[in-house]
Each structure stands twice: as structure tokens, then as C-alpha cells.
Design brief:
The protein is mostly beta strands. 6% of the residues lie in helices and 40% in strands. The longest helix is centred in the N-terminal third of the chain and has 21 residues, at 4-24.
């Protein structure tokens, strides 16, 4: 892992380089509003059913020239003896010696009952919580699984998260369930409450861990319906999204960069001069707003169980902005990219970019808004490819795709789920940039996809 001095020195250089590189590329400006507008221009051509290289199953449709393997299926026995949990979600990948290591979230939710944890009891956060993370060790040549094990246990609804520049994964709980009675989840209306511990926190997992880490909640980062995080390596600031119909965009400024558990300041984004501005409707492509930040005085409110917006309401009282279901977040080129899954006039999704302008302010720009499901159907997880395009996982009601958004704003199809109508999740590239890892969330399986990337924008 990086020590603080190495982190600050190396990330400052990277941050300057990244901003210049982004400015040199075309902006994501021209919304060619046709679903397959970029397939032949920026994409890789039409999709067709392909069989996996290792099992022969036809699970995905991909462009010609691309291949894939499947592994880490729900129920498969892992190296530590536990069964692979389901509901695969956010992921990140690192190189370690001659292998790729992936830390993978599991967005599981369960009613409170003893011994629900997915790993060893002695390191689990809550024995009544049934979610967490698993770590996958993959051969970069064969793209096959060598080893897998539980790396975080006893948490709840670990949806997305994000990688840090110092070699850890931040896993985010998308719930504020806890020890109280009568909790109702905001999405599926399933009754909750009665857990041994409070939930709604972030947890940190080292990619170097060879087993389950001791689960410790990062309470100063806030107790709310977390989704994803993205870390600016030039400052160590952690940007956070909230998956709620009325959501906030947050940042956590740690007192000591790289040491999130040591405490810090939680803040919420506000549009300068526009109190409690609603970004969900009436926006125009390339609309840019100046952002300032208001402090959240109580990031871990006692009433978060009963009111999952208890943190957000503190920010709105100071004029913070409202977003629609902020989900995926990714850092690249000095910017944070965000998906608003049901934002926009059609409620089918927006893609935003936040560019810091020093520590106090920044610019928020609407890059893309979907006019309907036939164009882009509820973007969820996302990542930025090594070649500059955005990889977008759809989470719509019907057939779901992995989509690409080129730097000039053209959308294109990259992968189609042939197995079922489950969403794609966890898109992330290998450290070498030659393999895209992605999940089908339910019933839960992970893919490694590779091919002629230089032929298109991903």
C-alpha cells in the first residue's frame, strides 16, 4: 500500500496529467439521439450470440472478434469453503504479482436472523446481516478463476462502491436498516429492522487481503442509502452517490488522506445561487452549474433508521441540490462521472460530470439525458475505459445491455444479456486495459471479455 507521502506525491502528478489529457479530447457534447447511432462509427458493429470460451454457454451477445469466459457463479464453492453469494454488483481490479485480483460486492438483503453472515463469524460486522464482498484471483492469460474467498461479511445491501488510489475497495451499504422495528426498504418495501447492528455505512477492504477483513464501519462518511464512491487521487477526497428518488451528491474530506477511519468532514453539493435546486427535470444537454459544498453537521444521525433521508435533509436545509437516484460514479481525467438512473424528463437516465475547481467549488455538467428507453434505459454502474469512452450498465425493465458512450457523445451497444433480463453490474477494466470484467447481477455470474478494443471507443 501507499504511505501518505507517496500517495500525495504520485497522485498530484497524475491529477495534473489527467486534466490535461481530458481537455485534449473532444467533449461529450453531441447527443446523437438514436440507440445504435454509434454502433458502426464509434462501436464495434452488430452483436451476435457468442459461447463462452470455458463452458460453451451462450450467455452474451457481443460484437465479432470478442471472446469471454464466465466464472464466480452464485453457489459455487469458494477456496475458503463458503458458497459464492449472489446479487453480484460493483467491482474493481488490481494487479498482484502475476494475477488479477477483483473485489466484488454482493447486494444481498435479508430479514434479520442469526447466522446470516456470508463468512466467518469472528470478523463479520453483524451476524444478522447477509451481504459483503468476495475477492477473485484470476489468471490474466486464461481469464479463468484461480481462487476466491469472502473478504467482507456481515454487512447489508452492498451495492456499488469504488476503488482507492492506495489499494483498497470501499464497499457501500444501500440501506439504513438496523436494530429498530418496522423499517421498510425504499425499493422493494420488504420489512426490515431487528438487526444486531446499525447499517448504512461504508467499509474498506484491501485488495491484498487473503481472507475476510475485520469489518469496521466508516461512520464519518455518513449513514444513508449509499451507492458508489470515486476518489480524486490529487486530493484524497471521496465523492459519494446516494441511490434514492430524491438523492444528494456528497464528498468526504478525510482528516488524513488514505486514512478514512481517522475521521473527516462530510459535505453535500449545492448549486451556487440556487437553493435546493432540482436537477431531475428541465435540463439541457451541456448545461453547466457552479457547485459549492455545504457541511453535514451530523453524518451519523440516530434517526437514520426511521428516515433514510436524515442526512440529506441536513444538506437540503442549507440549500443542497436534489438528484434522481445517483448510482454509478467513476474518477477519470480530473473529473467524477455520475449516473442518475431515473433522472431526466423521461425518467430514463442522465449522465453527469463533476470537475473540481480547487477545493471550494467545481463545475457540474449534464453530458447526456435519455429521451426514452429506446435510446438509453436507466444507466446504473459505469466506468471509464482506458481509451476514454464510458462503459454504462443498463438497469431497465426489459432487455439490458452494456452500452458505450464515446467522447463525442455517440451511444453504441457492446454486450447484450441473453441469459435473462437481469441488469449488468460492476463494469471495470483489468489493470492492463485489455479485459472488461462485468456481472449479470441475478442469479449472479462474472464475465471476462476481451477482443479488438482499438477498433472502437471502449
Amino acid at each position: 500500500m501507499l504511505d501518505r507521502r507517496t500517495f500525495l506525491k504520485s497522485s498530484a502528478v497524475f491529477g495534473l496529467f489527467g486534466v490535461e489529457g481530458f481537455l485534449a479530447r473532444p467533449s461529450l457534447a453531441s447527443n446523437a439521439l438514436k440507440r445504435d447511432a454509434g454502433n458502426s462509427v464509434r462501436g464495434y458493429g452488430d452483436l451476435s450470440a457468442k459461447a463462452t470460451e470455458n463452458t460453451g454457454e451462450k450467455l452474451l451477445a457481443l460484437p465479432d472478434g470478442f471472446k469471454y469466459t464466465v466464472f464466480g457463479k452464485v453457489g459455487d464453492k469458494m477456496s475458503d469453503g463458503f458458497a459464492t453469494p449472489g446479487a453480484h454488483d460493483g467491482m474493481a481490479a488490481w494487479m498482484h504479482k502475476d494475477t488479477i485480483r477483483i473485489v466484488r460486492n454482493h447486494e444481498l438483503r435479508n430479514l434479520a436472523k442469526p447466522q446470516s453472515q456470508i463468512g466467518k463469524a469472528e470478523v463479520s460486522y453483524d451476524l444478522t446481516g447477509g451481504a459483503g464482498t468476495t475477492t477473485l484471483v484470476i489468471d490474466p492469460k486464461t481469464r479463468l478463476l484461480k481462487e476466491s474467498f469472502v473478504s467482507l461479511s456481515g454487512t447489508m445491501v452492498n451495492c456499488a462502491g469504488g476503488r482507492t488510489p492506495w489499494g483498497t475497495w470501499i464497499s457501500c451499504e444501500e440501506t439504513t436498516c438496523g436494530s429498530g422495528k418496522g423499517q421498510v426498504y425504499h425499493k422493494d418495501k420488504e420489512q426490515g429492522g431487528g438487526y444486531d447492528k446499525e447499517h448504512g455505512y461504508n467499509f474498506e477492504v484491501s485488495f491484498l487481503a487473503n481472507g475476510a477483513v475485520k469489518a469496521e464501519p466508516l461512520k464519518a462518511m455518513g449513514r444513508f442509502v449509499h451507492e458508489a464512491v470515486a476518489v480524486d487521487p490529487s486530493t484524497g477526497i471521496v465523492y459519494q452517490t446516494e441511490d434514492h428518488g430524491t438523492a444528494g451528491f456528497y464528498r468526504y474530506i478525510p482528516d488524513v488522506p488514505t486514512q478514512l477511519a481517522a475521521g473527516g468532514r462530510l459535505e453535500m453539493a449545492k448549486i451556487v445561487g440556487k437553493d435546493k435546486f432540482d436537477t431531475r427535470r428541465g435540463q439541457k444537454a451541456q448545461q453547466t452549474y457552479e457547485i459549492e459544498w455545504v457541511q453535514i453537521e451530523n453524518p451519523d444521525p440516530a434517526d437514520a433508521f426511521a428516515d433514510e433521508l436524515a442526512v440529506a435533509k441536513q444538506g437540503w436545509a442549507k440549500g443542497a441540490a436534489i438528484f434522481g437516484r445517483l448510482e454509478g460514479a467513476w474518477y477519470a481525467d480530473g473529473c467524477i462521472y455520475l449516473n442518475s438512473t431515473d433522472g431526466g424528463d423521461a425518467k430514463k437516465g442522465q449522465i453527469w460530470r463533476y470537475r473540481p475547481k480547487g477545493l471550494a467549488v467545481g463545475e457540474l455538467t449534464l453530458l447526456f439525458e435519455s429521451p426514452g428507453a429506446e435510446i438509453l434505459d436507466m444507466p446504473d454502474n459505469l466506468c471509464v475505459s482506458p481509451r476514454g469512452g464510458l462503459v454504462v450498465c443498463e438497469d431497465g425493465d426489459g432487455t439490458n445491455y452494456v452500452r458505450g458512450l464515446a467522447p463525442d457523445g455517440l451511444l453504441f451497444d457492446f454486450a447484450l444479456n441473453l441469459h435473462n433480463n437481469s441488469e449488468f453490474t460492476g463494469a471495470t477494466f483489468s489493470p492492463q486495459g485489455d479485459t472488461l470484467f462485468v456481472n449479470i447481477q441475478n442469479p449472479g455470474m462474472t464475465f471476462a471479455i476481451w477482443g479488438p478494443w482499438d477498433r472502437g471507443a471502449l
